[in-house]
Design goal:
heterodimer; A: alpha+beta; two-stranded parallel sheet; B: about 280 residues; alpha/beta; 5-stranded parallel beta sheet
């Protein structure tokens, strides 16, 4: 199972999970399909990513 | 306690603000606090907790509340004094400011009921507030999220990163209030890292911006009534404030950021407070 598939399974199994990335999509470039919008790409903004992850959990 | 809450809603906000300022100055004794910074945002906090946030002793954990984050954490005496006003905090605890027997300290921490998130390291709260706003938007919840930032902390890159994201995600439920007192620590902002033209910077990052006198309750109320300012845009309120507001000998002084008074000096200053 790929990292991408594993991550998708986690998100789909529990609606508290959201995938966040700071535009590091290489290993998860196909993951947006089927996540029902629970995918957020904040752009190249790692500082914001950490705070947003905390605030949106 | 319920009576205190009732009081802040019915008596003029100015009277509440005066009580808050007295608490702040008294917290500047016994080890000191960032008194100039707390006084500049006191009126904004009084306004927010008097009604806009829908937070009271009974409702501060309710999911229907609006969220408030104090990003300029060193101004926490203003927050705790307002908590005392609405009955969230026993005012006697303010007497133990900095004591080892209490968690009232120079920066907010979540062991104090009503504090949503700890703060103090500048620039870290807007990303968190944007995350909460994003979560509310994704779940289609009506809650609003208010973050109060100092103007000095706008030097931090994380502020602008998160504003880009807030604009991209069309977070019109996010309200960023800038306590524009024009000082950071012991420097004037415009002499160290100039911020002007500030409204234009926020506009360029995709926010809707209003500027208001941060000590005029009627003007503040009018601005907040208009939120969201524009559909699909995060809201920025630039509150023009005075560092040390209420004490003429402290106002607009670069050297009056952190003050440590004797009890006698603090009481002398309390007597000189003006509305």
């Amino acid at each position: 199972m790929s990292y991408e598939e594993y991550l998708r399974d986690i998100v789909l199994a529990d609606d508290r999970f959201v995938v966040l990335t700071a535009e590091n999509r290489a290993a998860i470039r196909n993951i947006t399909d089927g996540l029902n919008g629970r995918f957020i790409d904040v752009g190249i903004a790692e500082q914001a990513l950490i705070g947003i992850a905390e605030g949106s959990h | 306690m319920t009576e205190q809450l009732h009081e802040i809603k019915t008596l003029p906000l100015k009277e509440s603000s005066m009580r808050v300022r007295k608490h702040i100055i008294r917290m500047a004794a016994r080890g000191g606090c960032y008194v100039g910074s707390a006084l500049s945002c006191a009126d904004i906090l009084v306004f927010l907790y008097a009604g806009f946030l829908k937070i009271s002793k009974e409702t501060f954990r309710e999911e229907t509340r609006n969220y408030f984050f104090l990003s300029k954490g060193h101004a926490v005496p203003a927050l705790y004094a307002v908590f005392a006003e609405i009955g969230l905090l026993d005012p006697e605890r303010l007497e133990h400011h900095l004591g080892t027997d209490d968690s009232i300290y120079w920066h907010p921490n979540t062991s104090i009921p009503g504090v949503e998130f700890h703060a103090g390291s500048l620039g870290h709260i807007l990303p968190v507030a944007a995350g909460v706003a994003l979560d509310c938007a994704m779940r289609d919840l009506p809650n609003r999220v208010v973050a109060l930032l100092g103007d000095g902390e706008l030097n931090e890159g994380s502020v602008w990163e998160s504003l880009l994201v807030a604009s991209a995600r069309r977070l019109q439920n996010l309200i960023i209030v800038i306590d524009r007192n024009r000082f950071q620590a012991n420097c004037a902002t415009e002499e160290l890292i100039p911020l002007e033209p500030l409204a234009e910077k926020f506009l360029a990052f995709g926010a809707a911006v209003r500027t208001v006198d941060g000590h005029d309750f009627a003007a503040i109320e009018k601005v907040f009534r208009d939120i969201p300012f524009e559909k699909g845009k995060p809201n920025v309120v630039i509150a023009q404030t005075v560092r040390g507001k209420g004490l003429p000998e402290l106002e607009n002084r670069a050297d009056k950021w952190f003050c440590n008074y004797s009890e006698e000096e603090a009481e002398r200053l309390v007597m000189k407070l003006r509305g």
